[in-house]
Amino acid sequence: MTIFNWAYDIFKSLNFNDDLSSYLNLGVNIIILIVVSYVLDFLFKKIFIIVLAVIAARTKSSFDDFLVANKTAKYLAHLFPLLFIYKTVPVILSKFTYWEDFFEKGVKIYIIILSLWITRSIFNALKDYLKNKPRYSDKPIDSYIQVIMIVLWIFGITSFVLIMFDTTMKTLLTTFGAISALIFLIFKDTILGFVASIQVSVNDMVRIGDWITMEKFGADGDVIEINLATVKVRNFDNTTTTIPTYSLISDSFKNWRGMLDSDGRRIKRHLLIKANSVKFIETLDIDKYKKIQHLTSYIDHRQADIDKYNTLNNIDKTVIINGRNLTNLGLFRKYINQYILSHPGINKDMLLMVRYLQPTEKGIPLEIYCFSKDKTWLNYEHIMADLFDHIMASVNYFDLEIFETISIPTNKSND
Fold first, then answer.
1. Coil vs helix vs strand at 380
2. Largest CA distance in the chain
């Protein structure tokens, strides 16, 4: 403040000859004002930047490091020459009442703008600081900061108008009420984004880091940023999709967070078995299937029940369709079920089943439904591929066939 007082005293002690015109005095004073203001700005900027950098280097907290990165010290330094100008303008413009009032209003408005810049840099530093904290890494900090800054800018713009036109708050609010329809029309997207951002945050619909799928916008990847107007998604092909925030509450999307927080990731796929390859198991073939370790105990127990039923009901087994019988598809389904239960990558505590779906013109869909323990995409695909490699290789052993569309080559005559 010593430099500030020294520069201010210079202006109070200046005495120009009476023979100089008032406009020449004004011009000289303005030039001196600009030079002194520039020197003050340069000195305070150097001092503030150095001091804040030293403090940031000596403290353990990283918050002051982000203050340095967001140039908070630079914006703070600009306040001192502005205050000097604000105090000096009445002195050099004492004979120019109109210009004094004009420049005084300009300085006040710039002080408000500079205060908003300082506030914004502090909030940006706070945003960067919180994003590095695991507790807040998945929170839409950008949206909160933008909402606060919008409110501050509204107050700032209101102050501009009050200063520029020397009006009252009551008159200003009356004017805003009259043009509110126009304001809502112009800022429709911003207002919708503001409302949507609050709903998304309050209802915890999306967090940063969530994997979401939104076919309408071609989004399929991780959320990397949530702000007032848009949500940025980094797709798995490393492209970026921007989704309007309002669309998250007006349209449907899939959030995979529930799957990632659960104990397993679902495997749900089917094979198409040719219907004409399904058959009863002959008595002579049963011993062959008993050699499959996953089926040995099942066949012994199941065949005993079947034989008991057929004997009690005097079933004529000279025709195999009579009575109860094992089928190759039934044994295959049981084998897959037992194989999945023995697989180390499958969560046995979650739903596990092998079932038939509605037969179609392409065959009988045999669906495998289970959950892998590992939910990481790459590992999940390896587990699922390992299952189906074995299952598809096992089909022929049960004298079954997988449906494939046969392509018929066409003969083309040479020209």
1. helix
2. 139
**Ramachandran region of residue 43, left (φ > 0), alpha (ψ -120 to 50) or beta?**
alpha
Distances (CA, A) of 293 to 290, 301, 328, 333, 340: 7, 14, 16, 15, 14
Give the three-class secondary structure for 374: coil
**Contacting residues for 380 by C-beta, under 8 A, at least 6 apart:** 265, 267, 372, 374
Question: What is the assigned CATH class of domain 163-255?
Answer: mainly beta
User: Burial level of 248, CB count in 10 A (0-12/13-18/19+)?
Assistant: buried
Judge contact between 275 and 397, C-beta under 8 A.
no
With cut-offs at 50, 70 and 90, classify the pLDDT of residue 17. Answer: very low
Q: Which tokens in the block code for residue 146?
A: 């933008």
Return the pLDDT at 108. Answer: 79
Per-residue pLDDT tens for 37-91? 788 778 878 787 787 777 777 777 777 777 777 788 888 888 888 777 777 777 6
Of the candidate ranges 122-131, 208-217, 316-325, 362-371, the one whose mean pLDDT is the lowest: 122-131
Structural contact between residues 267 and 384, judged by C-beta atoms closer than 8 angstroms: yes
Q: Torsion over CA of 290, 296, 301 and 303, rounded to 10 degrees?
A: -10
Could you count the other beta carbons within 10 Å of the beta carbon of residue 238? 7
Alpha-carbon distances, residue 13 vs 7, 97, 133 (angstroms)? 10, 21, 55
Let me know: does 216 contact 269? Beta carbons within 8 Å.
no
The contacts of residue 7 (CB under 8 Å, 6+ apart) are 36, 39, 40, 84
Q: Which residue ranges make up each domain of the chain?
A: 2-137, 163-255, 265-398
- What predicted TM-score, i.e. pTM, was given to this entire model? 0.56
Give the number of C-alpha atoms closer than 13 A to the C-alpha of residue 257, restricted to the C-beta side.
13
Q: Regarding beta strands 254-255 and 364-372, do their DSSP bridges make them parallel or antiparallel, or are they unpaired? A: unpaired
User: Which of 15-29, 233-247, 397-411 is most confident?
Assistant: 233-247
Query: How crowded is residue 288: how many other Cβ atoms within 10 Å of its Cβ?
Result: 11
Q: Are 387 and 368 in contact (CB under 8 A)?
A: yes
pLDDT tens string 354-365: 999 999 999 999
Nearest CA to 213 out of 235, 244, 197 is that of 235
**8 A C-beta contact, residue 380 and residue 265:** yes
**187: pLDDT strictly greater than 90:** no
